[in-house]
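#structure-requests
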Amino acid sequence: MKNYIYLFFILCFSLSFAQTNERTQNSSMIVANTISVTIGGQFPVTGTFPASVTERVDQFVTRIYSQSLERSLRTATDQTMLEKIKKELSDYSLRGVLLKRSTGEEYILDLAKFRIDGDFKNNPYLKNDDVIIFPPNDIERNFVSITGAVNSPGKFLFVDGDKLKDIIELARGINKAYENVTKAKIYRLTYDGRNNEIIDIGINDDFPLKRGDQIVVLAEETQRKEFFALVLGEVIQPGYVPVTRNSTKLGEVIKQTKGFTENASLVRARLFRGNSVTTLLEKQYGIKIDEKLLNNDRELVDRIVNYEQAMMFRMSNLVEEDQYYFQAENQYRVLNEGSAIDFSKISDEKYEIYNFIVYPGDVIIIPPKRNTVYVFGQVSNPGHVKFVEGKDYLYYIEQAGGLGEYAEDEIMIIKGSSRNWIPAEKNVTVEEGDYIFIPKERIKSFRTLTMELAGYFSIIGSIATVLLLIVQLGK
């Protein structure tokens, strides 16, 4: 029995020793795999940091940056400070990064290119005592820019030795949406900024660049875009209808929706020419406005709109009281173009309206028939009255309970199609969706009558005074 107990203690001691030895070996391996790397130059945080021998430069830099950002954001107390911290910490360049080995070797790395093409020559493994130095990020003076037919136009830190192909690669290559892209122009300012040299080159030329070069990759603007009009309401297949840039006819659009339903009110149908603040400018100048620019700069929108309004008023003879009405009418003009369209003739090619051009962004609304006439104002029971073909306005007033005691004689028919106000007469045709408005007679109080009479007497007194003066002068 004692022998068994002895063997048990021996076995436990052996297992404990093995586990301790394994932990020691693991710790030794961790220490052996840890190296020291120093970061300098223009980077959010500089100093010497532990790294792993399995880390590459980009992985290490990203880790240190993320840790620095996380620590800094803990101190942010509001959104403004948060954005400020992010902006300050992001002020460094991934291009022109110098890697110095303890052996004396030096490499210029382009981590920005590595993140695009995955070429590990710009992202080697780290070694002990490596030093990574980030260059000054003076993007305002030490830059090269590229625009035109590339996927990501932009401005990049210039690195000595940059060639055209390097910047095209940083711009993520030629945009395949453009056809026949073979040429580029380089605009190269002199040091004093007074003269501009223009260099024509092929996009495949191994052309060396200089600081401040502005590259334009040439291509005709593609018009193969997502052009569509939106048709809503009483059509068989409502929704987005693909259209061309400026040649799709309204009749063709309606055909694409398979036509109107039986419940469509063609009298009240409308075509709206877009629905944004850019519409007025695009109509005025015939140029597509970048909506992202306007949406991100409300002050710019206000300046442009105010400028357009000033242009409209500048040569007018409008008095101040008329300007508010004109503004409303001008906005109505822009947004409601197409309101005069007679949709009842839209399916027949012999009518001019079939050929009305629909532009991208247009909205066509086909409302349902109301089959009522709305009577309101000085009637006993204002509301919807069932539409009866051929009945005049008196019929609908009677159905709404008749005229009230204070009803005025100037009854108006407001057309549902155009909102045009027409004095009510026997010969005016009432259509479904129309409105009949009976205004209220103005009741004058004794005080109001007294004030009006006082005004009249004042005028009469002034006239009498003038006449008396004329008589006296005549003597």
